[in-house]
Amino acid sequence: MAGMTRRDFVKASAKGMALAAVPLIFKVDPIRAFTTPLGEHAALGDYYNHFGVDEATIRDVMAAALERGGDFCDLYFQHSIGSVIALEDNIVSRAGTTVDFGVGIRVVEGDQTGYSFTEEITPEAMKQAARTAANIAGESSNLPPDMLNFHKIPNYYPIETPWEDVKIDRKIPMLQNINDQIMSLDNRVIKAQVYFLDGSKHILIANSEGRAVCDYQPSARILARCTAEQDGRKENNGFDLAGRYGIEFFTPANIDRLAAETVRRTVVLFDAVKPESGEMEVVLAAGSSGILLHEAIGHGMEADFNRKGTSIFADKINKKVAEPFVSIVDSGTNPNVRGSINVDDECNDSQETHLVADGILTTYLHDRMSSRHYGVAPTGNGRRQSFRYPPLPRMRNTYMLPGPHTRDEIIRSVKKGVYCESFTNGQVDIGAGDFTFYVKSGNLIEDGRLTSPVKDINLIGNGPDVLTKVVMVADDFKLAEGGWTCGKGGQSVPVSLGLPTVKVSSITVGGTAS
Amino acid sequence: MNNKERMDLADWAVKEILRAGAQDASVDIANWRQIEVEFRDGSLDNLKESVQNSLDVGIYADNRYSTHSTNDLRRDSLGSFLSEAVAMTKYLGEDPDRRLPDPKCFEGREPRDLHIYDPSFVEVTSDQRVAAARRIDAAARALSEEIISCTGGYEDSVAESVKVTSNGFRGERQITSFGYGLLVTVKDESGGRPRDWNWAQTRFHKDLPGAEKMAKQAVEGALAKRGQAKMPSGTYDMVVENRSASKLLGALSGPMSGRSIQQKSSFLEGKLGQKIASDKLTVIDDPFIEYGLGSRLYDSEGMTARKRVLIDKGVLKSYYIDSYYGRKLGMEPTSGDSTNTVYELGEHSLEALVGMMKKGILVTSFIGGNSNRTTGDYSFGIVGMYVEDGKIVRPVNEMNISGNLTDLFGRLVEVGNDPYVWSSDRRPSLYFKDINFAGL
Prior knowledge:
The complex is a heterodimer of chains A (about 525) and B (about 450).
Chain A: E1 8-11, H1 44-51, H2 55-65, E2 72-88, E3 91-109, E4 112-118, H3 123-133, E5 149-150, H4 168-185, E6 189-207, E7 211-230, E8 233-243, H5 252-267, E9 278-284, H6 291-298, H7 303-307, E10 328-331, E11 352-357, E12 360-361, H8 368-374, E13 382-383, E14 392-393, E15 397-400, H9 407-412, E16 416-428, E17 434-446, E18 449-462, H10 463-468, E19 470-473, E20 478-479, E21 484-488, E22 491-499, E23 502-510
Parallel strand pairs in A: 5-7, 9-16, 15-22
Antiparallel strand pairs in A: 1-16, 1-21, 2-3, 2-6, 3-4, 6-7, 7-8, 9-23, 10-11, 10-15, 11-12, 13-14, 16-17, 17-18, 18-23, 19-23, 20-22, 21-22
Chain B: H1 3-19, E1 24-40, E2 43-61, E3 64-70, H2 75-89, H3 126-141, E4 147-165, E5 170-186, E6 195-202, H4 211-223, E7 234-240, H5 246-253, H6 258-262, E8 283-285, E9 308-312, E10 315-316, H7 323-329, E11 341-343, H8 350-355, E12 359-371, E13 377-388, E14 391-404, H9 405-410, E15 412-415, E16 425-426, E17 430-438
Parallel strand pairs in B: 7-12, 11-16
Antiparallel strand pairs in B: 1-2, 1-4, 2-3, 4-5, 5-6, 7-17, 8-9, 8-11, 9-10, 12-13, 13-14, 14-17, 15-17
């Protein structure tokens, strides 16, 4: 419940680099000594072995979970191995690993959830957790399934080598290369930090409807930051690339780009000013400006808020919310993108969900509970941070489809406004509909031209209102390239976002006084 | 497992790490049990209960350093985990500054009861937890017909931990935590569904406030937001309610970290001994407050906790320096962590501060925004009340304040007498003069 005091927000680069996640260099997980290292697309039997369970045990645990009633239960097994290597002051001077292992057991009765988890994957410990979760129930009754059927899922993130098998000596030279480039590209640069983060998450989920799924979810990210100094002033900025990638993604071209962009985005800030404050026309560059959608409409469309009546979008299904050339999608099927999922964390298929089709609000983002509440098919949005949590409706990759205009005509159409290029974070109050996002860098637009760089401004608006003010949408759609993390109810999940170049006719810019 | 058994396991882990070829090691082992109950609109909504473990090690091998974390505490699997972690450490670059703290930093730790473990914890029953969540939800819904939805929650947890280092540190800790509160959403004729929340966090069960009072504050807070709208951009005085003042004060703590200073990404670099705020700002880090949410006898490195002055009448006195960045900077370590952050209080209540504004905005919460550690620039969204001649006139939202933190804290003309006790950051309400707000 402490989670309720946290607003729903999206954050970009990880400021808290205390992640204790480090690359393993060993073929077999040192903790579990599994007989079967899981390949990228292993069979269900391999996953049973990996977690030391079998179908009979799972069904026994489900019987315990449903002992007191309950319409539904599920078991979510997880084994994660994460890694961080950090370079600072020219040395790869720190590395960390995190290994996490456990099973979460959920019992559902109507709209109510009982939840417990254990790190001990023995029948006794699991049944005890199941009985704890069962305390939510007491009305109906149910039996465990007769058998579990393996539900096959597609693979939206094939990679060459699972991260547990990638040796540290392949990663260290990449960090050193990026560091050396950053330190030599501009003589104003005085400090640099570079991080390599990767993770492997193996999951096995089984539910009382008789469905079982398994998935291997890789994630990888390189993040670089630098500080530059000029005439006694200092500026700091960073750049990152993140996704469900294997090590093959970090090609020499991408390594060079990580260094060059980090420096470029930092030194441009020396010339940057703060724009005036107040309402004005705003143009959002294609790409990570999709944070606008994530905050303005994404959270407000999560079905749990609407089921509870607390979202400003609760009465807007099938209503016109934007111009007809505005279509907004939340998808889990984009290849190798950070927010993609082969299956959601409740065994439901991932999909491309059309939130807004040609300006009309068409569907919420559903988990199992809300899809039953509304009597619709689930949309594959039930996600959880880990086995320690029950799922909630969460976003995946949220973006707008290309439109009829061009970037050039959009910029030319603005007499006085701001062009927003890079962002750090955002937040929304889904009841009032207020949302904000922080622009790290961009440009003034004066008489149809990009002029002085600008930096460090927060934009604030009302979600439904701003959607109606998206007046031009270009044909140059891009997804964000960096790592975005969404927080809600005390749980974080990886996401992505995207946008074509877009013009909003009016939004409040938190600049300086005129 | 109890703390004695955890201590034995930690000693064993240290030996294993040294046996595998490291020269030094630190081991932390913790166990945490938590129960949460939520009631929504009269029905039990969520029930969560669980126990979890963690084992975190720091490995110092041949001037190289790595950290590892696992939740599997079985010795048969830990052995290979630890030896392989040591082997991996040797691939990293040499960094002679990476060492355990000097043992003299562990001295002077006096055993004292900080009252952070409530023995009555074991007497709290499931029925009591459920009743508490039910009560606060019901109390709120009884107050207004305009409520769309209300969620009341109760949670409690107990955590036990031990810490051992190869150069002589030994410590253990037990902490209880209790939480109680609600979130209320109301109807608003002008569109939108305003909400407010109230949440109390304490170390002892007896210190949780009553449901009715908490519910009243949240319901009134939500109802007061009806009709909220933005106002013209302009200059207004600003009072920030204690509950939300941490957003501004917290923007100073990142730049005060040893890492930001040493990596030259702090606007407070080189400012020790200089004025960075008005003389109304005195900030102290105090680890010894009884029942304090941040109270402790030793920090995350094992260094003995000490009370220290961070900012004295606006003058910056201390950074948060851990032992590693202390070596890199050539400075004595203070501590990389904060404990309880306390402030010299003023004389006025929040109401009195609001009464002092001729034309101002009472900020009740912030929404989004960020600050730049390296330059001190900030831009934050706000929600609050417009005040004229000391009286609240109407609710405002969708506005933004923007500027530089040094300038902002130079405009701090009053602090309240109302520390926010539900957090380890016990900030009072703050009054700032002539702040630029962006709106219409």
